[in-house]
Structure prediction request, 154 residues.
Amino acid sequence: MDHQELNEFIVQAKSATYVGGGERAAACRPDSHDLSFVRGEWSYLDSYFGGRDFIGEEVAYYRSQAVWAMNYYGRILRADLITPAEAGEVIKASLSAMYKEGRFLGGFSHRHAAFQYTDTSEGEVESFRGREFISRNGERAYELFYHGGLIKND
Prediction:
């Protein structure tokens, strides 16, 4: 499996699902919100729980075998600075801009309305961890932690 092809597929899948307002898939677990994407021999599932504060997992499959995954947990830190709807709007706008660069890992900053979105990470598609946050007037209002990488069955 080519890591560049995997990275390109992940960016395309992420762009087409949450960020792109993709159609919801049938819940694979009780109370989960699921989004899926398929391209050729590749498929992707993002399954999460919650709303204002949430936790989830994304998995990329190649030929029906899980090859990559990412876990994440995000939450509103300051409800007086940002609403869940505003956080979602900022995240979608910011991630859309990053995905247009052909990547999903950090070192990215984006201004949207009164908010500053920042993503930092270390590592590559093979193994990584990172954090995104949204600030308003220099105060952190939202944060999300994520980590993931390749899945090897041998």
Observations:
- The mean pLDDT is 96.
- Helices lie at 3-16, 84-99.
